[in-house]
Amino acid sequence: MDARGALGRYGEELAARRLARAGMTVVARNWRRGRGGEIDIVARDGDALVVCEVKTRRADGFEHPAAGVPPAKVARLRRLAEGWLADHGGSPPGGVRIDLVAVVLPRRGAAVVEHIRGVA
Q: Name one Pfam family in it (predicted).
């Protein structure tokens, strides 16, 4: 695995821990459906399904991780969520939400993990 891949995996691990501490249940990680892309984390928040995109950046980068989720990415996440629902029995009673977990890694100290609910 290259450095970028390792950075992403580390960010996803921090994100999964953050979601679990918030009372959510992680049900899948790195879920793929064909060539359509990947859902970083699929979780349950009560009776809602949460499709979670994780963006990890170093603190010396030029933009906040949330800037890495343009409208095309949101559209892809929606299509992937539809695929998940088709493969796993349809929509839950609480509906589906798309969240973002932004992870910023400073040169020193602890990572800053921000959970943004309902980005789309």
A: UPF0102
